[in-house]
Amino acid sequence: MNEAILKHDERAILALRALYRQYGYSSFKMSKFEEYDLYVQNKDFLVSDRVIAFNDTDGRFLALKPDVTLSIIKNTVDEADCVQKVCYNENVYRVSGSTHQFKEIMQTGLECIGAVDLCDCAEVLYLAGKSLATISDEFTLNISNMGIISAILDSACTDELFKKEIIRLIAEKNSHEAIALCKKYSICNDDASKIVALTTLYGGTELLGKVEELCCGNGEAQEAYTRLSELCASLAETDLADKIRIDFSVVNDMNYYNGIVFKGFVSGIFEDILSGGEYDTLMRRMGRTSKAIGFALYLDLLEALDKSRSEYDVDVLLLYAESNSLKQVMAKREELVLSGKSVSAQRAIPKRLRYKELVDIRGEADLK
Q1: Are residues 26 and 56 in the same domain?
Q2: Do 356 and 339 meet the contact criterion of CB atoms below 8 Å apart?
Q3: pTM of this prediction?
Protein backbone atom coordinates (compact mmCIF):
# COMPACT_ATOMS: atom_id res chain seq x y z
CA MET A 1 0.00 0.00 0.00
CA ASN A 2 1.31 3.45 -0.95
CA GLU A 3 0.86 5.39 2.32
CA ALA A 4 1.64 8.68 0.56
CA ILE A 5 -1.83 8.69 -1.06
CA LEU A 6 -3.74 7.84 2.13
CA LYS A 7 -5.66 10.48 4.02
CA HIS A 8 -4.40 11.60 7.44
CA ASP A 9 -6.91 9.49 9.35
CA GLU A 10 -6.08 6.38 7.30
CA ARG A 11 -2.35 6.80 7.87
CA ALA A 12 -2.95 7.50 11.55
CA ILE A 13 -4.97 4.31 12.05
CA LEU A 14 -2.16 2.17 10.63
CA ALA A 15 0.57 3.93 12.61
CA LEU A 16 -1.34 3.99 15.90
CA ARG A 17 -2.32 0.34 15.71
CA ALA A 18 1.34 -0.62 15.29
CA LEU A 19 2.41 1.75 18.11
CA TYR A 20 -0.05 0.38 20.66
CA ARG A 21 0.69 -3.24 19.84
CA GLN A 22 4.40 -2.54 20.27
CA TYR A 23 3.65 -1.56 23.89
CA GLY A 24 1.53 -4.62 24.61
CA TYR A 25 -1.98 -3.25 24.08
CA SER A 26 -4.39 -5.80 22.63
CA SER A 27 -7.24 -4.87 20.29
CA PHE A 28 -10.64 -4.59 21.94
CA LYS A 29 -13.69 -5.11 19.72
CA MET A 30 -17.20 -4.25 20.78
CA SER A 31 -20.72 -4.05 19.45
CA LYS A 32 -22.05 -0.90 17.83
CA PHE A 33 -24.93 -1.04 20.30
CA GLU A 34 -25.19 -0.73 24.07
CA GLU A 35 -28.04 -0.55 26.56
CA TYR A 36 -29.39 3.00 26.49
CA ASP A 37 -29.36 3.16 30.30
CA LEU A 38 -25.55 2.98 30.30
CA TYR A 39 -25.42 6.43 28.72
CA VAL A 40 -28.36 7.90 30.63
CA GLN A 41 -26.68 7.04 33.95
CA ASN A 42 -23.40 8.63 32.82
CA LYS A 43 -24.59 11.39 30.50
CA ASP A 44 -22.32 14.00 32.12
CA PHE A 45 -19.32 11.90 31.13
CA LEU A 46 -20.25 12.09 27.44
CA VAL A 47 -19.06 14.78 25.03
CA SER A 48 -22.74 15.25 24.11
CA ASP A 49 -25.85 13.94 25.85
CA ARG A 50 -27.62 13.47 22.52
CA VAL A 51 -27.75 9.75 21.74
CA ILE A 52 -29.29 7.80 18.85
CA ALA A 53 -31.61 5.25 20.51
CA PHE A 54 -34.00 2.59 19.21
CA ASN A 55 -36.03 -0.45 20.30
CA ASP A 56 -34.47 -3.82 19.53
CA THR A 57 -36.59 -6.75 18.30
CA ASP A 58 -36.67 -8.18 21.84
CA GLY A 59 -37.96 -4.91 23.29
CA ARG A 60 -34.68 -3.68 24.79
CA PHE A 61 -33.91 0.02 24.43
CA LEU A 62 -30.51 0.27 22.73
CA ALA A 63 -28.26 3.07 21.56
CA LEU A 64 -25.61 3.52 18.93
CA LYS A 65 -22.56 4.01 21.12
CA PRO A 66 -21.43 7.65 21.48
CA ASP A 67 -18.45 6.62 23.63
CA VAL A 68 -15.98 3.74 23.84
CA THR A 69 -14.64 4.03 27.41
CA LEU A 70 -18.00 3.25 29.03
CA SER A 71 -18.36 0.12 26.88
CA ILE A 72 -14.87 -1.09 27.79
CA ILE A 73 -15.53 -0.62 31.51
CA LYS A 74 -18.85 -2.45 31.23
CA ASN A 75 -17.36 -5.36 29.31
CA THR A 76 -14.20 -6.01 31.36
CA VAL A 77 -13.69 -7.42 34.85
CA ASP A 78 -11.22 -6.64 37.64
CA GLU A 79 -8.21 -8.94 38.03
CA ALA A 80 -6.21 -8.71 41.25
CA ASP A 81 -2.79 -7.05 40.82
CA CYS A 82 -3.15 -7.07 37.02
CA VAL A 83 -3.56 -4.32 34.46
CA GLN A 84 -5.63 -4.83 31.34
CA LYS A 85 -4.13 -2.87 28.46
CA VAL A 86 -6.45 -2.54 25.49
CA CYS A 87 -6.59 -0.36 22.40
CA TYR A 88 -9.42 0.21 19.98
CA ASN A 89 -10.43 1.58 16.64
CA GLU A 90 -14.17 2.14 16.75
CA ASN A 91 -16.88 4.25 15.21
CA VAL A 92 -18.88 6.39 17.61
CA TYR A 93 -22.03 8.35 16.82
CA ARG A 94 -22.13 11.97 17.96
CA VAL A 95 -23.41 15.36 16.96
CA SER A 96 -20.79 17.07 14.81
CA GLY A 97 -19.54 20.41 16.11
CA SER A 98 -19.44 21.79 12.56
CA THR A 99 -22.72 20.51 11.08
CA HIS A 100 -24.68 20.04 14.36
CA GLN A 101 -25.98 16.79 12.90
CA PHE A 102 -25.25 13.20 13.91
CA LYS A 103 -22.07 11.89 12.41
CA GLU A 104 -20.25 8.57 12.40
CA ILE A 105 -16.79 9.34 13.80
CA MET A 106 -13.74 7.07 13.84
CA GLN A 107 -12.14 7.16 17.28
CA THR A 108 -8.96 5.43 18.33
CA GLY A 109 -7.33 5.21 21.71
CA LEU A 110 -6.34 3.00 24.60
CA GLU A 111 -7.30 2.17 28.16
CA CYS A 112 -5.33 0.86 31.15
CA ILE A 113 -7.65 -0.74 33.71
CA GLY A 114 -6.69 -2.55 36.92
CA ALA A 115 -3.86 -2.11 39.40
CA VAL A 116 -2.66 1.03 37.60
CA ASP A 117 0.51 2.54 39.07
CA LEU A 118 2.75 5.51 38.30
CA CYS A 119 4.61 3.51 35.65
CA ASP A 120 1.36 2.79 33.80
CA CYS A 121 0.38 6.47 33.93
CA ALA A 122 3.77 7.51 32.55
CA GLU A 123 3.39 4.97 29.75
CA VAL A 124 -0.08 6.24 28.80
CA LEU A 125 1.12 9.86 28.76
CA TYR A 126 4.10 8.88 26.63
CA LEU A 127 1.87 6.99 24.18
CA ALA A 128 -0.48 9.98 24.03
CA GLY A 129 2.47 12.14 22.98
CA LYS A 130 3.71 9.55 20.47
CA SER A 131 0.18 9.32 19.05
CA LEU A 132 0.23 13.04 18.36
CA ALA A 133 3.68 12.70 16.80
CA THR A 134 2.30 10.23 14.23
CA ILE A 135 0.00 13.00 13.00
CA SER A 136 2.29 16.03 13.03
CA ASP A 137 5.68 17.21 14.25
CA GLU A 138 3.97 20.34 15.52
CA PHE A 139 2.02 19.32 18.61
CA THR A 140 1.79 19.84 22.36
CA LEU A 141 0.59 17.60 25.17
CA ASN A 142 -1.02 19.77 27.86
CA ILE A 143 -1.15 18.22 31.33
CA SER A 144 -3.03 19.09 34.50
CA ASN A 145 -4.06 17.34 37.71
CA MET A 146 -7.63 17.33 38.97
CA GLY A 147 -6.32 16.36 42.40
CA ILE A 148 -4.56 19.71 42.75
CA ILE A 149 -7.56 21.68 41.52
CA SER A 150 -9.98 19.72 43.71
CA ALA A 151 -7.83 20.14 46.85
CA ILE A 152 -7.43 23.90 46.34
CA LEU A 153 -11.16 24.38 45.74
CA ASP A 154 -12.18 22.18 48.69
CA SER A 155 -9.95 24.28 50.95
CA ALA A 156 -11.51 27.51 49.66
CA CYS A 157 -15.23 26.68 49.60
CA THR A 158 -17.57 23.71 50.02
CA ASP A 159 -20.36 25.13 47.84
CA GLU A 160 -20.81 22.83 44.83
CA LEU A 161 -22.24 25.60 42.66
CA PHE A 162 -19.12 27.69 43.29
CA LYS A 163 -16.90 24.75 42.32
CA LYS A 164 -18.85 24.14 39.12
CA GLU A 165 -18.68 27.79 38.09
CA ILE A 166 -15.03 28.29 38.99
CA ILE A 167 -13.96 25.16 37.09
CA ARG A 168 -15.67 26.57 34.00
CA LEU A 169 -13.75 29.84 34.43
CA ILE A 170 -10.46 27.99 34.95
CA ALA A 171 -11.11 26.08 31.72
CA GLU A 172 -11.75 29.39 29.94
CA LYS A 173 -8.64 31.02 31.51
CA ASN A 174 -10.98 33.77 32.66
CA SER A 175 -9.14 35.38 35.57
CA HIS A 176 -11.32 38.51 35.58
CA GLU A 177 -14.58 36.65 36.27
CA ALA A 178 -12.76 34.25 38.60
CA ILE A 179 -11.78 37.20 40.80
CA ALA A 180 -15.39 38.44 40.78
CA LEU A 181 -16.77 35.00 41.66
CA CYS A 182 -14.33 34.61 44.55
CA LYS A 183 -15.48 37.98 45.91
CA LYS A 184 -19.12 36.96 45.53
CA TYR A 185 -18.54 33.84 47.64
CA SER A 186 -16.29 35.70 50.15
CA ILE A 187 -13.26 33.52 49.43
CA CYS A 188 -10.28 34.62 51.51
CA ASN A 189 -7.49 36.46 49.71
CA ASP A 190 -4.96 33.63 49.99
CA ASP A 191 -7.31 31.01 48.54
CA ALA A 192 -8.59 33.43 45.89
CA SER A 193 -5.06 34.20 44.70
CA LYS A 194 -4.34 30.47 44.31
CA ILE A 195 -7.56 29.92 42.37
CA VAL A 196 -6.90 32.88 40.05
CA ALA A 197 -3.33 31.63 39.52
CA LEU A 198 -4.79 28.41 38.11
CA THR A 199 -6.39 30.43 35.29
CA THR A 200 -3.05 31.89 34.19
CA LEU A 201 -0.53 29.05 34.60
CA TYR A 202 0.62 27.80 31.22
CA GLY A 203 4.06 26.81 30.01
CA GLY A 204 6.81 24.23 30.15
CA THR A 205 7.81 22.11 33.12
CA GLU A 206 9.75 25.07 34.53
CA LEU A 207 6.36 26.15 35.96
CA LEU A 208 6.32 23.21 38.37
CA GLY A 209 7.97 25.38 41.02
CA LYS A 210 5.02 27.79 40.90
CA VAL A 211 2.59 24.88 41.08
CA GLU A 212 4.40 23.60 44.17
CA GLU A 213 3.95 27.01 45.83
CA LEU A 214 0.19 26.84 45.22
CA CYS A 215 0.06 23.42 46.90
CA CYS A 216 2.11 24.43 49.96
CA GLY A 217 0.31 23.71 53.22
CA ASN A 218 -2.38 21.56 51.60
CA GLY A 219 -1.64 17.85 52.11
CA GLU A 220 -3.90 16.54 49.33
CA ALA A 221 -2.67 19.15 46.86
CA GLN A 222 0.96 18.39 47.73
CA GLU A 223 0.38 14.66 47.16
CA ALA A 224 -1.17 15.37 43.76
CA TYR A 225 1.69 17.75 42.93
CA THR A 226 4.26 15.04 43.70
CA ARG A 227 2.50 12.73 41.25
CA LEU A 228 2.40 15.43 38.57
CA SER A 229 6.08 16.36 39.01
CA GLU A 230 7.21 12.72 38.89
CA LEU A 231 5.31 12.11 35.67
CA CYS A 232 6.69 15.29 34.11
CA ALA A 233 10.20 14.24 35.15
CA SER A 234 9.75 10.88 33.41
CA LEU A 235 8.56 12.58 30.21
CA ALA A 236 11.49 15.00 30.38
CA GLU A 237 13.78 12.01 29.84
CA THR A 238 12.06 11.12 26.54
CA ASP A 239 11.87 12.57 23.04
CA LEU A 240 8.70 14.41 24.13
CA ALA A 241 10.49 16.71 26.58
CA ASP A 242 9.92 19.93 24.61
CA LYS A 243 6.29 19.07 23.80
CA ILE A 244 4.96 19.01 27.36
CA ARG A 245 2.98 21.95 28.75
CA ILE A 246 1.60 22.52 32.24
CA ASP A 247 -1.92 23.82 31.67
CA PHE A 248 -4.56 23.96 34.40
CA SER A 249 -7.24 24.99 31.92
CA VAL A 250 -7.27 21.27 31.09
CA VAL A 251 -10.08 20.23 33.42
CA ASN A 252 -12.66 17.45 33.44
CA ASP A 253 -15.73 16.66 35.52
CA MET A 254 -14.64 15.82 39.08
CA ASN A 255 -17.53 13.34 39.28
CA TYR A 256 -15.55 11.14 36.87
CA TYR A 257 -11.90 12.21 36.84
CA ASN A 258 -9.67 12.27 39.91
CA GLY A 259 -6.02 12.74 38.91
CA ILE A 260 -3.90 13.42 35.85
CA VAL A 261 -5.85 14.84 32.90
CA PHE A 262 -4.40 15.87 29.55
CA LYS A 263 -5.23 17.11 26.07
CA GLY A 264 -3.31 17.01 22.81
CA PHE A 265 -3.17 19.78 20.23
CA VAL A 266 -1.85 19.71 16.67
CA SER A 267 -0.92 22.74 14.57
CA GLY A 268 -3.65 23.44 12.01
CA ILE A 269 -6.51 22.13 14.17
CA PHE A 270 -8.08 24.67 16.51
CA GLU A 271 -9.37 22.30 19.18
CA ASP A 272 -7.96 19.41 21.14
CA ILE A 273 -7.58 16.30 19.02
CA LEU A 274 -6.71 14.02 21.94
CA SER A 275 -8.19 13.89 25.42
CA GLY A 276 -7.66 11.62 28.40
CA GLY A 277 -6.98 11.16 32.06
CA GLU A 278 -7.35 9.07 35.20
CA TYR A 279 -10.98 8.17 35.82
CA ASP A 280 -11.00 6.14 39.04
CA THR A 281 -14.14 8.00 40.18
CA LEU A 282 -16.03 6.79 37.10
CA MET A 283 -14.89 3.25 37.89
CA ARG A 284 -16.40 3.57 41.41
CA ARG A 285 -19.66 4.86 39.94
CA MET A 286 -19.86 1.78 37.72
CA GLY A 287 -19.23 -0.62 40.59
CA ARG A 288 -15.58 -1.31 39.85
CA THR A 289 -12.79 -1.40 42.45
CA SER A 290 -9.83 -0.95 40.13
CA LYS A 291 -8.14 2.17 38.76
CA ALA A 292 -8.06 3.38 35.17
CA ILE A 293 -6.39 5.81 32.80
CA GLY A 294 -6.78 6.21 29.06
CA PHE A 295 -7.25 8.56 26.15
CA ALA A 296 -9.11 8.93 22.88
CA LEU A 297 -7.95 10.51 19.64
CA TYR A 298 -10.66 12.02 17.42
CA LEU A 299 -9.77 11.12 13.87
CA ASP A 300 -12.60 13.13 12.28
CA LEU A 301 -10.69 16.31 13.14
CA LEU A 302 -7.91 15.23 10.77
CA GLU A 303 -10.17 16.23 7.89
CA ALA A 304 -9.06 19.80 8.61
CA LEU A 305 -5.45 18.82 7.93
CA ASP A 306 -6.36 17.11 4.67
CA LYS A 307 -8.21 20.24 3.52
CA SER A 308 -5.56 22.71 4.65
CA ARG A 309 -2.51 20.81 3.47
CA SER A 310 -3.70 19.49 0.12
CA GLU A 311 -5.23 21.47 -2.70
CA TYR A 312 -5.69 18.38 -4.84
CA ASP A 313 -7.69 15.15 -4.83
CA VAL A 314 -5.16 13.40 -7.04
CA ASP A 315 -1.71 14.06 -8.49
CA VAL A 316 -2.48 13.06 -12.08
CA LEU A 317 -5.61 12.96 -14.19
CA LEU A 318 -4.94 10.41 -16.93
CA LEU A 319 -7.24 10.99 -19.93
CA TYR A 320 -7.76 8.17 -22.41
CA ALA A 321 -10.13 7.40 -25.27
CA GLU A 322 -12.01 4.32 -26.45
CA SER A 323 -9.39 4.02 -29.18
CA ASN A 324 -6.67 3.43 -26.57
CA SER A 325 -6.22 -0.23 -25.76
CA LEU A 326 -6.56 -1.60 -22.25
CA LYS A 327 -2.87 -2.50 -22.37
CA GLN A 328 -1.87 1.07 -23.19
CA VAL A 329 -4.00 2.67 -20.47
CA MET A 330 -2.84 0.21 -17.79
CA ALA A 331 0.81 0.60 -18.76
CA LYS A 332 0.68 4.38 -18.53
CA ARG A 333 -1.25 4.29 -15.26
CA GLU A 334 1.24 1.88 -13.66
CA GLU A 335 4.17 3.99 -14.88
CA LEU A 336 2.72 6.99 -13.04
CA VAL A 337 1.79 5.02 -9.91
CA LEU A 338 5.27 3.51 -9.66
CA SER A 339 6.72 7.02 -9.80
CA GLY A 340 4.89 7.71 -6.50
CA LYS A 341 1.94 9.65 -7.90
CA SER A 342 -1.77 9.12 -7.30
CA VAL A 343 -3.68 8.65 -10.55
CA SER A 344 -7.29 8.87 -11.67
CA ALA A 345 -7.84 7.36 -15.14
CA GLN A 346 -10.85 8.93 -16.87
CA ARG A 347 -12.36 9.31 -20.34
CA ALA A 348 -13.57 12.85 -19.50
CA ILE A 349 -12.58 15.50 -16.95
CA PRO A 350 -14.81 15.28 -13.83
CA LYS A 351 -16.16 18.70 -12.86
CA ARG A 352 -15.09 18.61 -9.22
CA LEU A 353 -11.87 16.63 -9.43
CA ARG A 354 -8.83 18.68 -8.31
CA TYR A 355 -5.64 17.47 -9.99
CA LYS A 356 -2.06 18.74 -10.22
CA GLU A 357 -1.20 17.39 -13.66
CA LEU A 358 -3.07 16.33 -16.76
CA VAL A 359 -1.66 13.45 -18.83
CA ASP A 360 -3.60 13.02 -22.09
CA ILE A 361 -2.94 9.86 -24.12
CA ARG A 362 -6.04 10.09 -26.29
CA GLY A 363 -4.03 11.03 -29.37
CA GLU A 364 -1.12 8.68 -28.81
CA ALA A 365 -0.50 5.70 -31.03
CA ASP A 366 -1.48 2.36 -29.50
CA LEU A 367 1.21 0.07 -28.11
CA LYS A 368 2.27 -2.71 -30.39
Answers
A1: yes
A2: no
A3: 0.79
